Amino acid sequence: MSEKKENRRVVIVGLGLIGGSIGLRLKAADLPGLEIVGSDSDGSNERAAKKSGAIDRNEHLTEAVRDSQLVILAVPISALRDVFTAIAPHLAEGAIVTDTASTKGEVMKWAAELLPDTVSFVGGHPMAGKEQTGIDHADAALFEGRAYCICPTVDSSPTAIQSVVGLAQALGAEPVFIDAEEHDVYAAAISHLPLITATALFSLMHESPSWNDLGQLASTGFRDMTRLASSDPSMSNAIWKTNREAIIHWIDRFSEELSRIRGMLSDAQDEELFKLFAEVKLQRDEFIANPPRRVSAARGPEVDRQRAFLDIFVGGMMADNIRRVSKIPELMEARNEEPGGEKRRLSLGEKMEKGIRADLEKMEREREEKAKQEGDR
């Protein structure tokens, strides 16, 4: 019996909005033998998580991860490197480690550098959240129907990949395989740029000499547009530091689009403006009603959530899943080998959509131009 319980032990490091929501959702599964152990540098978060039912008990970080099969790191990006360093000597052989950070490139490098070869790391990022942070805002339904990005490495075992797929599905999310660099370019466009735009708009209005009058008139449009400006600034700062180049690229693209619209206004191109607004309205309405889908890890129209939950753990039930997951490398292109037999990293150019590849190529040209300008000085 003790061995069975050991096999169903999940450790959540970081008990804020994301970690707390993961705990609440997994506890709601009410699976016999499941034990959720939480660890947070803030003792008040641990107490609140236990009181809310998100965890069964709390332990010190190094004790929590010892002998645990699945470790979920839900700490801010700014703390992640230090957490990797702290847990590395204490992880059990064969342990599976995953994270929830909103940028992936640097995180994958840290994991490769700091975690032992005896464990398997699979990067993760649930595309869900709120502008409010902390365990008090945790919600078991936070991930329902949301994309859950999964970034395997060339060394991630099929068992580890399927465990993280099972975790995502158990949370109610849709697992999506994605390369770390591709993820960061996408995230800069659809997550980080909106945050910057909200911050810039609110700052612009607030710094105006007419702010008192503007603030009195501001209604739902302004509030909706600036909602993300209420995000935790420490988390935002960590995003800038780990995804700077992609964010700058999208700021430049956004500035170009604003300049284009400004030109239409200045030149009184009313018909073109109307056409633009009408087309974008239809495009956004279609996006809301029928968002685009890409190849995901999910199999079949319906996901058995309890079976997905069991897939998190390695055991007798995993045998069929390991065979089924043999098709996963075809999706993620992570285990291709060179003629000499050496593994190579994910081929970004082979798997990315045409549009995002063009953006990466433009970013590369921008880097070359910047280097040339610096060399001419």
List the SSEs and their pairings:
Layout: H1 2-7, E1 9-13, H2 17-28, E2 35-39, H3 43-52, E3 57-58, H4 61-65, E4 70-73, H5 77-87, E5 96-99, H6 105-114, E6 120-126, E7 147-152, H7 158-170, E8 174-177, H8 180-206, H9 211-217, H10 220-225, H11 233-242, H12 244-266, H13 270-289, H14 305-310, H15 318-324, H16 328-332, H17 348-351, H18 354-376
Parallel strand pairs: 1-2, 1-4, 2-3, 4-5, 5-6, 7-8
Antiparallel strand pairs: 6-7
Helix pairs in contact: 5-6, 8-12
Descriptive overview:
The protein has 377 residues and is of the alpha/beta class. 54% of the residues lie in helices and 10% in strands. It contains 18 helices and 8 strands. An 8-stranded mixed beta sheet has the order 3-2-1-4-5-6-7-8, with helices on both faces.
CATH superfamily of the largest domain: NAD(P)-binding Rossmann-like Domain
Count of separate structural domains = 2
* CATH fold type of the largest domain: Rossmann fold
Q: Helical content, roughly?
A: 40-55%
SSE order in H/E notation? HEHEHEHEHEHEEHEHHHHHHHHHHH
What's the quick description here?
With 377 residues, the protein is an alpha/beta fold. It contains 18 helices and eight strands.
Please tag this protein with its features.
377 residues; alpha/beta; 6-phosphogluconate dehydrogenase C-terminal fold; 8-stranded mixed β-sheet; 10% strand
